[in-house]
Amino acid sequence: MQDEAGAPLTGADPTPSPAPDPSPEGRSRLRALLLTIAAVVLVLDQGTKAWALARLTPGEPVDLVGSAIRLNLIRNPGAAFSLGDGSTWVLTLVSLVILGWVLVAVRRVDNRGWAIPLGLLLGGAVGNLVDRLVREPGPGRGHVVDFIDYFGWFVGNVADIAIVVAAGVVMVLAYRGVPLGSRRDAEHGAEPADG
Q1: Catalytic residues per the record (predicted)?
Q2: N or C: where does the chain have the smaller number of CB atoms within 10 Å of the terminal CB?
Q3: Active site residue ranges
């Protein structure tokens, strides 16, 4: 019960958001973290896709966890759940817009809470965009290599995992009201000078 009138029933938020570090050095460190995460996701994504193309045969799934999780090689011209099969160019443009938004957001990041999911999102978006740009049937129309089959519902890849995890973290951050950048950036629309 409340000890005094007007006091909240619970204490302060038990999991405070990471303290922002808007200094040029702090932002540089956060950008380095973000770009390192993106690079690791990209390397893992493209490496596992190369492995899947070399080791798996389309139409011949390999059980990992019974038939619940399988390795099942497909080349996906569409988006998640094979939506938009005939709209590969549109999906490429959407990927470029998302990539542009992330690159703009990178300039404002001043806390680790946002740096991590943006790194995951950047790495995943670039991983699937690489497929769209360099794989058959041609630039901008390339099919994404998917090979992780979840319960027969959909087939994805490492980039998709990174994107889904990033989306979940972003939703939590947005729900908790954790700002992407400092209040000064938001109020003035200005980017502090990097040192």
Answers
A1: 146, 160
A2: N
A3: 146, 160
